[in-house]
Each structure stands twice: as C-alpha cells, then as structure tokens.
Amino acid sequence: MIARDLYNKLYTDFDLANRTDDWGFMNFDNEFITPEFRTEYMGLVLDNTEIIKKVYTVTFPDKALLKKIFDRNESDILLFSHHAMGYENLLDGFPFYDIPVEYLKELKKRRISFYMLHSPLDQYGKFSTSVSLVRALGLEIIEPFCQYDKNTKVGVICKSPLEQIREIQKLMEKTVGHKCRLYAYGADTLKDSLVAVAAGGGSYPFAATEVAERGINCYITGFTRPLPYFEPTMEFHKISREHSINVIGGTHYSTEKFACIAMVDYFKSCDLPAEFLPGTWYLEDL
Fold first, then answer.
1. For the domain that residue 36 is a member of, what is the CATH number?
2. Which residues are annotated as a binding site?
3. Which positions does UniProt annotate for a divalent metal cation binding (predicted)?
4. Most CB atoms closer than 10 Å: which of 46, 82, 186, 244?
C-alpha cells in the first residue's frame, strides 16, 4: 500500500483534525522526527518508507519490541503505537523514555515508518482503548464518559452482571493476566450495576469527579499509584475516598493493549498484513 495513502486514511478515520495532544516533553533534537509531529504531537512520527508491506502494532515503542522487529530483518514496515515513547516504570522517576537515536537511525535504514495515535485512539469509538478493554471484559457498553477536552471523551460507562467489587477485580485479573490493585474506598457491592472505565493513565481529578457526579462506586483504570510528587494522583485518591469510589488498577500497558490488538483488524481491513507485538506490564503502576 502507498504509505501516504495509509497515513491520510488514518488521519481521516481517527479525526485528527479535531484532536489535540502534547508530547512536548520528548527530545526533538534529531533529524528523524517529522515536522508535523513536532507541532501536532500525533500522527506520523517517522516518515521512512514510501510503501507499506506490513504493520506491527504496539502499545509502547519499547526498545525490546524495536529490537524484535530488527531481528526479523524486514523493510517497508509501519510501526503503529498508542504512545510516542517507550515505557519502563521502576517506581522512581518519569516512566517514559525517548527512542534512542541509534534506534531511530536503524528504523530509517530499514525503511520502517512510525505512526502513533494517543488521544485519537483514546477517543470513544470502535477501536478506542476503553471500548476495547470493556469488550475484553465482556461488559455491556452504555455510553461514553470522561471529558478529556472539548472534543474528546476517553472513558466508558458500562453495565456489569457481577454484584461484588472483588468479583470485578477478579474479572480484571483474568482478563489482563496478572494481579490488579483494588483501593476499596466504597461499599463491597456494586451500585446500580454500573462501572466506569478509563484505560491507561486515568488517575486524574477530573475523572474521579465525573465518576462521583454520576453516583458510580466502581472505577477501572490503568495507573493508580499515588505519587506524592505528582499532585493530580493524590487529589484523585482524595476525591475517590471522599465519594466512596472503589478504584481498580490494571497497569497502564495492560488496560490499553486491547486497542492495539484491535487495530490489527483495522489494518487487515486495509489489505495489509498486521501483527500485535506484546509488551511489558509493570505492577509498579499500581
């Protein structure tokens, strides 16, 4: 497939014209990142090939996954990611890291382009992070929630047949394949059969406030660890406690991977071979 045709299709299908994002904390001191990404912070990050023969989807462009692609000795590839940076949460410090320059050089050499959708993939829709997680959980989608900006809602209100909060925690653990953290701030019984879900880094005050306003007592997200040096996470837990909202954390990676798995079908619908490359989850997120 002509690379530019695919980029234009992604731009249109995911409505980038009406989305905003910010990766201004990345290191742009290199010759590889496209001019458009330097200003728009979404879409085409690396423009390295004119033809796309295959797509690899990842949640984070981690070094280990890039190395795996290199080891396959392929070219004319599109790397599609939900994030623009790698992720390694080892408790201390900022977990995101820039793709090293030597990897950027190798991607250029092997004609591997890089396209990322963060807020456009979070936006409520068929392939979105929260919708994909809810579908994996087998819950019934009711409506979108969690107003990220004026044009974007990143969460889902859903209905659960389970009655106990710890049953929902166990369902999460079965779905993501590892332990999940429950902050039991509310009643043990699910209220009105409703669960609020916002995959990824959803431990922000505006999310907890909206859950509280809706009278829901169970909220699922990815990153839940209170960070004394990052006040929004502390305020998030304060609001959740005050309004008796049980919070279930499933790690940043594990709650968002299902959207990147779903994107395999998107690219296959474009008559492109596509494969999801599993990444790494960190219980330190919890």
1. 3.40.1390.30
2. 82-83, 122, 252, 256
3. 82-83, 122, 252, 256
4. 82
Same domain, 130 and 247: yes
Instruction: Give long-range contacts, CB 8 A cutoff, 24+ apart: 233-242.
Output: 233/203, 233/204, 235/205, 236/203, 236/204, 236/205, 236/207, 236/208, 237/183, 237/203, 239/205, 239/208, 239/209, 239/212, 240/183, 240/185, 240/208, 240/211, 241/185, 242/212
Tell me the percentage of the chain whose pLDDT exceeds 70: 100
The predicted-structure confidence for 170-219, as pLDDT tens digits, reads as follows 999 999 999 999 999 999 999 999 999 999 999 999 999 999 999 999 99
In a domain, 257, yes or no: no
Both 106 and 9 in one domain: the answer is: yes
Let me know whether 135 and 100 are in one domain: no
Do 214 and 172 share a structural domain?
yes
Domain that holds residue 212: 123-251
Number of domains in the chain: 2
The binding site for a divalent metal cation consists of 82-83, 122, 252, 256
